[in-house]
Amino acid sequence: MSDAVDLALPRIREAEGYRQFPYKDTVGVSTIGYGCALDVGWPEPFASAVCKLQTEIAETACRQLDVYADLDPVRQSVLVEMMFNLGPAKLAQFTHLFAALRAHDYVAAAQAMLDSKWAIQVKSRAVRLATLMQKGTDA
């Protein structure tokens, strides 16, 4: 970052204030965070940075799952993607998936993923992730 950004950033954060949820600013613009206008769109680098942060948050949540540490990185990545997509409360409803993972039965885990409302909603994404869960490899 430049010196100007380093100096301006704390002032911007203080002046704008943080809002977790969208709100209308003083001129009626839909805004979130530290004064980030929603109706101007997000440049791809910004969206990419937010996506990376959300993925890291999903991975932190996955670390709380009793099965996560026992999985290889590919299967861990499947749970991270599901956590990203579903959130902790909905992912927790995949009781058959977690039972299969505790038993190291990856065929049953993949089937549990496919036998869900989520799979109907996300279609080919569920098939792709179930295949990764079953095989444990990207290849």
What features would you describe in this structure?
Helices cover 62% and strands 9% of the residues. It is mainly alpha-helical and 139 residues long. The chain folds into 2 domains: 3-37, no CATH class; 44-135, Orthogonal Bundle (Lysozyme). Helix 3 (73-86) packs antiparallel against helix 8 (124-135), helix 5 packs antiparallel against helix 6 (106-114) and helix 6 (106-114) packs antiparallel against helix 8 (124-135). The protein is elongated. The protein starts with a helix and ends with a helix.
How is the topology of this model organized?
Elements: H1 3-16, E1 19-24, E2 30-33, E3 36-37, H2 44-62, H3 73-86, H4 88-91, H5 95-102, H6 106-114, H7 117-122, H8 124-135
Antiparallel strand pairs: 1-2, 2-3
Helix pairs in contact: 2-3, 3-8, 5-6, 6-8
